[in-house]
Predict the structure.
Amino acid sequence: MIGTWINMGTVLAGGTAGLLLGKRLPARVREAATVGVGLSSLVLGAKLALGTGNVLVLMLSVILGGACGAALRISDRLEGLSAKVERLFSGRPLAEGFLTASLLFCIGPMALLGAIQDGLFGDWSLLAAKSILDGVSATALAATLGPGVLLSLVVILVYQGGITLAAHLLATSLAGFSPDSPIVVELSAAGGVIIMALGIGLLKLRDLRPADLLPALALAPLIAWLFELWG
């Protein structure tokens, strides 16, 4: 889990720096940093989404995933959980920073593939590259959205670290894992759509409630597998 620890370290360092500098930075600088992260998220998300090998799989996973997420009220539940945590911190706003940072740091192929690569082969180079990007983003987000960004460390540990441990334990059965397989490609594409929704929110164009789209990450591999099974 070396890669995950490095990732958590850069987010902690970047987020702490953002909190310390946040009040000292002019509002226009903090806003520009957030816009930069938002635009970068749009570009990254679009690149991932356009990598789909089957647009129908992507459409079905996002539409059905969004419907499931809305029915399960994922965004509302996460915001409610964050509100409870806020009360522990004297009501300081945490929800937006927590949700934004958690989605940005954990959705996408670098988190998934990097964690598996680390677990299978002990190769954490991909997570090291991701760590640099996350550290910079954490600084910008924490300066604008506050201490909630640091709570994403728990999500990184559970999600990314959990995948690494699972890959290590199941190394034999996952030995044939390929980042070019349709299942992984469509998973990445669905993640790209969610990252785009996140970027649109950061740019304050519209709140698309990206957390409600999270079930698409489970549906995309399943639908891709069914399409591959049926030829």
